[in-house]
Design goal:
108 residues, mainly alpha, 4 helices, (wild Malaysian banana) hypothetical protein, mitochondrion, transmembrane helix, transmembrane, membrane
Length: 108
Amino acid sequence: MAEEAAEGGGSVSVSEKKDAPSLRRYDLDPKLDACLDLSIRRLVYSSVAGASAALLFFRSRTTRWASVAFGAGVGIGAAYTECSYILNGSSPKRPQRISPFPSLSQEK
């Protein structure tokens, strides 16, 4: 076998396979993976939106960077909220809508 490996044959010995570094894929929990993906996307998209708005509306560098930072903060906050829903397994609790006008069927 050593002769085949020295000659450039296609076979690789078992000891050579153990010496080669194994590339492991880091599989996270699917929920954490979804949160990481969501966080990166929201951060980038909101930062780009803040930069676009800054180029359109502001002239000074300070206000432009503040607009980008505000966009990034909004993105991180939105991602944090969504990730808390994903990781806790509950949907956001919305208050029950109360109509200011009672319906006719309830007035009996």
